[in-house]
Write a sequence for this structure.
């Protein structure tokens, strides 16, 4: 009995030791598994955290690119110095001003052609203005679509950020690998198509034959962005910039739908407003990358205008002298009364004798005073031609009104010794954005940029209205007959005027010349009183 009991206890002790050993092994494996899980979770945390750090760095780099892309600028052509910045350069913020000026020039030429007033220089000037704008645009396009420039702006921010949760070289850098596989145009896009550009305009400032695509924002009209429009058979497109919007990130899906290579506009060099950047980090665990897309916005608006341009109003007075129904002489007279001017000397009459004819001319200007008074010296519709002048002045200042123009002419003293008056802007801002319309006589104080002897006008002269004819007023005539049956004949004057408009496109600064052509016809009948 004793021996059996001992054997049983021995077997029981062995079984206990075996179970205990198995439990210990299980505990060890569980501990190892738990350690592996902890290590795995930690590694996953590092990877996910590092990925988030890479994304944040790439986002910051893309935003920096969208903010600093406006620093890239190219020199302005001499034709576009007035829409350049204070350093004579053009960047993304003011490229729409360049295209806006080219658009107005060509719109004016299109209107001239429709009115039958297109001169021999018109089409050539339109072509030159358009090509000069295109050259500036293409130079700027090369700058803003350059991957190297993108990398520089990206690395200014992202290059100083690290994925600290990773190990190894964790500096975030621009991914150049994709650049070898994708077209450079894959990094640029034109988003917000059909929305506003940064060009404010007044629909009334455009010639009537040209209609621009526009968008209203607030109480202002803006030229539509990335919406093809035409003038003088030429295509124009403006870059979209939302009013008051900061540069910001957008989704890659939105970007890809508007990529320059997937959905081009025009000739393919329209200035983009959105940019994509790829960033990567090479760590011990491998490489991590991220993509960010951002929209640029200069947060600056401009008016559609030709800043360095002007309109001319001039006066030309002609006297035509008739004896017995035939014109015998033609003379000019000034912008002030001339009490006695002889235009006929010893003209033989069929009724006998010789006639000397005289006239009192320039009496339409006897009241003196303002340019407005002289503009209205004879009766007639003067507001319709004034609207023609206003439309051109609005190509300098879109918000200028007929009331302002009339008031300015009333304040301008009329100098009878001067025939031409210039309507032009004066600027105080270095980028020519605050026009103050002034009028000065040709011999008065004119701005240094104004070229009175520029290239020939693009248009040809045409009458666009008449002043009412008056008889024997305000100019009168008299005569003396010697050697005939009577000493004086029946005589009278007819005084009239025409509005002669010569349009200009603004290519050579001049937007047009309105001539007040006054005519005094002096008749000596050869019949006795």
């Amino acid at each position: 009995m004793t021996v059996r009991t001992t054997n049983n206890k021995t077997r029981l002790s062995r079984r206990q030791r075996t179970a205990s050993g198995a439990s210990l092994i299980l505990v060890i494996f569980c501990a190892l598994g738990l350690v592996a899980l902890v290590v795995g979770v930690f590694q996953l945390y590092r990877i996910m955290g590092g990925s988030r750090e890479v994304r944040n760095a790439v986002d910051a780099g893309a935003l920096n690119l969208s903010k600093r892309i406006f620093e890239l600028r190219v020199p302005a052509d001499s034709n576009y110095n007035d829409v350049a910045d204070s350093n004579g350069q053009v960047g993304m913020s003011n490229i729409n001003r360049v295209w806006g000026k080219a658009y107005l020039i060509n719109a004016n030429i299109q209107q001239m052609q429709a009115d039958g007033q297109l001169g021999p220089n018109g089409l050539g000037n339109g072509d030159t203005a358009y090509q000069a704008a295109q050259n500036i645009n293409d130079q700027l396009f090369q700058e803003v679509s350059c991957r190297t420039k993108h990398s520089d702006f990206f690395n200014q921010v992202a290059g100083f950020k690290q994925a600290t949760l990773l190990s190894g070289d964790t500096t975030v850098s621009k991914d150049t690998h994709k650049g070898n596989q994708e077209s450079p145009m894959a990094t640029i896009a034109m988003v917000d198509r059909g929305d506003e550009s940064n060009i404010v305009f007044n629909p009334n400032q455009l010639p009537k034959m040209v209609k621009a695509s526009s968008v209203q924002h607030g109480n202002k009209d803006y030229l539509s962005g990335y919406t093809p429009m035409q003038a003088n058979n030429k295509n124009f497109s403006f870059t979209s910039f939302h009013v008051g919007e900061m540069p910001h990130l957008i989704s890659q899906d939105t970007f890809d739908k508007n990529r320059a290579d997937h959905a081009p506009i025009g000739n393919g060099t329209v200035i983009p407003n959105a940019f994509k950047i790829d960033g990567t980090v090479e760590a011990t665990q491998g490489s991590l990358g991220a993509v960010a897309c951002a929209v640029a916005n200069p947060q600056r608006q401009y008016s559609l205008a030709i800043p360095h341009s002007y309109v001319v109003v001039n006066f030309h007075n002609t006297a035509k002298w008739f004896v017995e129904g035939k014109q015998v002489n033609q003379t000019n007279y000034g912008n002030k009364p001339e009490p006695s001017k002889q235009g006929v000397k010893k003209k033989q009459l069929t009724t006998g004798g010789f006639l000397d004819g005289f006239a009192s001319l320039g009496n339409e200007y006897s009241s003196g005073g303002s340019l407005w008074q002289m503009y209205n010296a004879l009766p007639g519709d003067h507001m319709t031609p004034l609207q023609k002048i206003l439309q051109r002045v609005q190509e300098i200042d879109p918000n200028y009104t007929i009331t302002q123009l009339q008031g300015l002419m009333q304040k301008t003293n009329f100098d009878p010794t001067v025939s031409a008056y210039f309507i032009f802007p004066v600027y105080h801002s270095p980028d020519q954005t605050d026009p103050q319309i002034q009028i000065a006589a040709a011999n008065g104080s004119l701005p240094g940029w104004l070229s009175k002897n520029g290239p020939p006008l693009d248009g040809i002269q045409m009458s666009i209205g008449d002043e009412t004819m008056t008889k024997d007023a305000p100019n009168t005539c008299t005569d003396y007959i010697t050697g005939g049956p009577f000493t004086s004949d029946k005589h009278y004057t007819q005084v009239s005027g025409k509005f002669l408009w010569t349009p200009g496109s603004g290519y050579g600064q001049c937007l047009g010349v309105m001539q007040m052509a006054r005519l005094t016809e002096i008749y000596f009948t050869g019949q006795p009183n």
The two ends are 181 Å apart (CA to CA).
